[in-house]
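Reagents: none. Just compute today. YtkA-like domain-containing protein.
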Amino acid sequence: MRKLTVFLFSLLFLFTGCSNGDWEVTIKTTPFYKEGVAAPFAVQIKENGKLAKQAKVHATFEMSNMDHGKIEVDLHEKGNGIYEENVQLPMEGDWEALLVIKKGNDKVEKLLKMHVKKEEAVAKVGKEKITMDDVRFYQVLSKIEIAIQKERVRATYTGTTLNEQLTYWNRREQYANRLNQAVSHLVELQAMALLAEEKGHVVTKQEIAKTISALRSQYARYETAQQMIHAYGEKKFWEDYSRYSKLRLLANDVYNDLAGAVKKANPTVSDNEIRYLAQKQYEELLLSQIDSLHIELYLPNRLS
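Predicted 3D structure written out:
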């Protein structure tokens, strides 16, 4: 540890500068490490036993046993003595944060020690995590569906129409590669699956097996799909699809409830109109559900 850090550690319980009060600092949110992501860091500060207000707080982060330089941030007051800001750390491990707290003529330094863990999730919906493995699977699944559509297009069209159709699906493929698009879809799906469970819906193993069996039969007709599944790893693909299928089935239960209610309220309208109205209500319900949940996104600064 560098001499400066050793010296500061020796002053862990001492004040520096001029201070007439008793200051207490507690870590409320320990930052995590994820490449390219700034993680939240929050502390609660008390002055003479009371929640501190209108203080200026500056934090300097350094690793305890390695030299990765300093990361400095100003913490912002959020109320109830909480001061926080996002900080992007270069790796997991043991870190120290030197807090310089200023209020009026008072100035105090506090050294905090913490263990920073690596965060595997790219998003959290409530307590449910969405990982990069989930994202990669969904991207592969999307590409398989697009590849099948391209195969169908080549078998159906020629000339200018064929080129137009292929251009459309090529653009869809580029869109499927975007990290933010995949994460958004998975967040929405997880949100509606949670709503379905709140409403008492349950997906059985038999339902999942039936869905997988139908999809296997469909993919067996397309060589491109088989090749992509083989490249992904067949066992892993169907294991991942089993988890994804559960979410899809739960979300479908919510839609089916809405469609049933629409049909009951409008017995004379066409099936197309029922689907339109049910989809509209589903989208409105999705927005309401998203607003009601605590959702965290851990996306890198440069999306890919």
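The two ends are 37 Å apart (CA to CA).
Action item: order primers for follow-up constructs.
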